[in-house]
Task: structure prediction
Amino acid sequence: MLIDACNNTVSNCLNCNGTTCIGCESEYYLIPEINQCFQCGQNCLNCTSLSQCTLCQQGFYNNNDSGQCQQCLPQCLNCSSGSGCDQCADAYYFAVVMNQSMCYPCPLGCATCSNSSFCLTCTTVYSYLTGSCLFMGYLTSCPSEAC
Result:
């Protein structure tokens, strides 16, 4: 039966068996021989040791060669390598070009878009009009659905 008696003596322990920690909180790993939890490396959510991350924070990927979390390209929200994207950050759209998954910038004024020429939403100083974002300073007459 699991009890939390060791939570008072073993910092960052999540699961105990008596006074022995058998599982650490997220971002920590257990060294059972000394019954202690230690923090994972930088940008790592789950790990088996300081040098072996198994799950990285958003915007980072697990470099299998080093076991460390490496930063995705700036336009990527999530990635599985340093050379492509799995999900794009705001103001970018996802496309596969020459077998490479990448994120490309949306047109000027778009907060989100589906491709290089079709906006889904606009930034604050732009007004949406049928897939485009128009700078409000340029509008002399404003269709009711756009303003």
